User: What shape does this take?
Amino acid sequence: MARRVGILLFDDVEVLDLCGPFEVFSVANRVADQQDRARPFEVVLIGVAGSGPVTARGGMRIAADVALAEAPDTDVVLVPGGVVDEVEARPEVLSWLRRARSRAEVVASVCTGAIVLAAAGLLDHRPVTTHWDDLADLRARWPHLDVRDDERFFDHGDVATSAGISAGIDLALHLVGRFGGEDLANATARRMDYARHS
Assistant: This one.
C-alpha cells in the first residue's frame, strides 16, 4: 500500500523545498510503474490557509489539494521552508503537526521548516539541521537543540530534518530508500539525473 506523504503548503514557501521532494516522490512512482511495482507514494499538498492557491517565493502560484482542517492522516509529513514566521505562529498548524507525529512514521522538514517543527515542540536532544543562514537563529531560539551545520540531513526514524533547499532532494531520496528500497532510490536519482549526497 502506498504511503501518503503530506507536504505543507503556505505563502512564501521556498519553491525547491516543496517541489524538489514532490518531484522525488513523483519520479519514484514513475520508476515503480516501469518496474511493474506498486506505487510507493501518494503525495497530498496540504494548504495551511485553505485549499486554494498560494504564492511561493519568487511568485510561483501553487494550489493545495486539501485544507489543513480536512487533511487526511499521513504516513510522512514534510514541512518545507521559506518565510515561516506566519506558519510557526499559527496554533492550528502546530497542533496539527503534534497530532500528525503521533500517527505518522516520520515528520520531516526541509530548510527553515525545522523552525516550524521546533515551534511545535517536535525536536529534542537529537541532532538537527536547517539552512546555513538560519542555524544561528535556530540555536538562539531553542538553545536546548543540538543544531549541526555539517550534515545534509538527519533521520532519527520518527523525525528528520535537512539543510537548505536542495538538501530536501537528498532527504526525499533517503526516504524513498527507507520506504521503497535503495534500488528504487538510486533508480529515482538516476532518472532525475541527480547525484545523491548522503
About this structure: The mean pLDDT is 97. Residues 3-191 form a domain with the Rossmann fold fold (CATH 3.40.50.880).
